[in-house]
Give the backbone structure.
Amino acid sequence: MNINLLRVLNLLSIFAAAPDEEMQTSGRSPTITHFIITIMSASIISYSELEAQNMNIAKIQANRDLDKKNVEAKMEDLKMRGLICNAIIVPASDAINEGLQLCDFKDPKIAVTAENADQYVVVVDGQHRLAAHLRLKDSDPEYSREFTFQYAPTERAYTIVAMLRAINDPGHTWSLKDYAHGASTLNGSCPTLSFIADLVAQGVPYSSAAKWAALNRKITAQMVKEAMNSEGEVNATLTITKNLEHGKRIFAAAKTRLGLTFVKPRPFVDWVIDTMTEEDSKAEGASKISGFFESLSDDQVKVLKKIKGEKGKGSKEELLKKELDNLYNAYQNKSE
């Protein structure tokens, strides 16, 4: 199904949470016609009109980061067909009142706060299309298409974050990286989410990042998604930080000696978790394993990095685990 049609259908579903007063008092159920009228009657404004009004555009920091390839694809699409689906905006004051952190769309270093909110609208859906439009305006003299926005209904029974999530869910366009970033931004006081988001931003797969943060296998992808979906409420597992600093210490030591590419894969952190024996406290285990990685010689690092799967001997993961076990046992014997 066309992604723009999916977006429209999804908007219809979230608008259903806000029937008008007449429907509430009459007891009638809202119809699909009612929602179409709601959308079509929403205020539409062009980018040029916003500029003429000295209005700027802000970005929700919890929204996913711009993807370069996506923007480039949108540039080609805009040049060929123009804008098919209006971007959706809300007044910046609405977003600030909901506790969202905002920044200027063109210059993320500029914070949008209550003091300058009257100079901004916030793009909720369409940031890649908008970025593509702005790049074309700056780089292509022949590009002269207009870009239009549509205000979300001012009276709504759903939050901006709920709208943001719902708009993106139909096409499954948010990756776990996007959810980790968004959940961390919305829950800035949750150090576990912050560390997971930091690792994912470095290119560590989510499945590995969650394990580094907890040094166990208890944090699930669904927990991070719910931290975004619940707009500030997080699963109790994410609030447990007793192993967080130990995970940071081991990851830093391993990354320093072996490099990010080597320590990113899930089997590597699985080895770390499995090697921390129950006899050791996590603090003792973290001290031993981080010390082990710090002690690796250049020759040992070269051996580890050259390991490949061999037919009849085992997969790369199996042979790597075996070599790490041998090196770690030798390290422990030497330390005793």
Summary: Residues 244-335 form one domain.
